[in-house]
Amino acid sequence: MNYIYNPKTNKKIIDEEYHPLIDLKPRFFEEIKYKMSAEDVKIPWTVENSLFKDYRVENEEFLEKCFLKDWDCSKIEKLLG
Question: Torsion over CA of 52, 55, 60 and 62, rounded to 10 degrees?
């Protein structure tokens, strides 16, 4: 038979017929009240203040260099004969 124990008290939580042996009470959450600080003010998203700030925009010259490098590393010329 399976029994479930509370590790803190080492008491059974369910009985042999799987009925709960504990009483549960709902949690009550109080509303959190706080004053807004300067850090709470949302800053509008821009590329300059994002992780993409150092991204280089691709241009035709850069793409041409990438293509030629890929072509040199590939074996397409050998396949085409």
Answer: -150
Taking the C-alpha atoms of residue 58 and residue 47, their distance in angstroms, rounded to an integer, is: 15
Quickly list DSSP for the chain.
----B-TTT--BSB-TT--B-S-------PPP-----GGGSPPPP-GGGSTTTTPPPP-HHHHHHHHHHHHHHS-HHHHH-
State mean pLDDT over 4-32: 75
Q: What is the pLDDT of residues 52-64, one digit of tens each?
A: 999 888 999 999 9
Rounded Cα distance, 79 and 33, in Å: 70
**Phi/psi of residue 64, each to 5°?**
-65, -45
The residue behind tokens 């072509």 is 71
Q: Which two tokens stand for residue 54?
A: 């150092």
